[in-house]
Design brief:
The structure is a single chain. By secondary structure, the protein is of the alpha/beta class. The protein has one domain: NADP-dependent oxidoreductase domain (TIM Barrel, Alpha-Beta Barrel), CATH 3.20.20.100. The strands form three sheets. The protein has a six-stranded parallel sheet with strand order 3-4-5-8-9-10, with helices on one face. A two-stranded antiparallel ribbon has the order 1-2. A hairpin with a 2-residue loop joins strand 1 and strand 2. The longest helix is centred in the middle third of the chain and has 15 residues.
């Protein structure tokens, strides 16, 4: 059952004291446009034009390229809230696109790199990306770092004014519980209609008014993994309503929990426009019940 169905899932919410549209933009896919910076900038400008004032990025996306595109494209009067993340580094030599960078000095280096690449003096929110969630990559012994040590350096950087607020990414419920006294701005975990392992954590965030920011919101994190927009019920409802299956699956997330903020990513203007229109999908109680009945699928992340 949906946590708090709403007749209209659009509108605005708050993250770290900033009022933002509930559907923002995840900039990671801009690294696919590494050889066409103008096209990358056009995607960002179109997102702003359509009201996406919450942009998610990281200093390791495209080895800094994505941050640089944002720096060259965003204007001071755009009113965009930037959320970055540290705890990983780009890795083109291994089987995964990132490697752990969990040590306190690496977290600070990540924030400093992002500040430089973005051309700003402070980042609104920086997420601490841990290596404990559903999506795991190999972690060497020197990268097994105590949470308290990581939070200490994040708090120090907040006190120094390098970042406005601290978020968490790829974490379990115990980590969120331990860091509640710090004041957590948001939690980012893989979550979708077909991958609902974190329902208990979702509820904990709701209880503490912590924005829930699902990444891989359609599932399909890895080749061959299940996707929400491939599910027959989703496809049928999309046809009935005149929207795409992806729009229906994104709209379900907005209806399912009112503290959800979406950051779907793309390198296509057309796809961007489709994603940002998901807030207008009219899911009534009957449609929501049909979507809720879809069983989460193993390996959907």
């Amino acid at each position: 059952m949906s946590l708090s169905p709403q007749p209209s899932p659009g509108g605005r919410a708050e993250i770290a004291g900033h009022s933002v549209a509930r559907i923002g933009y995840g900039a990671m896919q801009l690294q696919r446009l590494h050889d066409d910076r103008q096209a990358a900038r056009q995607v960002v400008r179109r997102a702003i034009e359509l009201g996406a004032d919450h942009i998610d990025t990281a200093p390791f996306y495209g080895h800094g390229y994505v941050d640089e595109v944002l720096r060259d494209t965003l204007r001071p009067d755009d009113g965009v809230t930037i959320v970055s993340k540290v705890g990983a580094a780009a890795d083109t030599s291994g089987p995964f696109p990132i490697r752990p960078a969990q040590r306190p000095e690496e977290l600070r280096a990540g924030v400093e790199a992002s500040l430089h690449q973005l051309g700003v003096e402070r980042i609104d929110v920086v997420n601490l990306r841990r290596m404990e969630g559903r999506l795991r990559i190999p972690v060497s012994p020197d990268q097994v770092v105590d949470l308290d040590d990581q939070v200490a350096v994040m708090l120090a950087m907040r006190d120094e004014g390098l970042l406005g607020a601290i978020g968490l990414s790829n974490v379990g419920i115990e980590t969120v519980q331990r860091t509640l006294p710090v004041g957590i701005a948001c939690v980012q975990n893989p979550y979708s209609l077909v991958a609902r392992d974190d329902e208990e954590l979702l509820r904990l965030c709701a209880e503490h008014d912590i924005p829930w920011v699902p990444f891989f919101p359609l599932g399909g994190a890895f080749p061959g993994a299940a996707r929400a927009d491939d599910q027959p019920t989703v496809v049928t409802i999309a046809g009935e309503l005149g929207f795409t299956p992806s729009q229906v699956a994104l709209a379900w997330l907005l209806h399912h929990a009112p503290h959800t903020l979406l950051i779907p990513g793309t390198a296509s203007v057309a796809h961007l426009e489709s994603n940002l229109a998901a807030g207008s999908v009219p899911l009534d109680a009957a449609a929501l019940a049909r979507l809720d009945a879809i069983r989460p699928l193993p390996g959907a992340h």
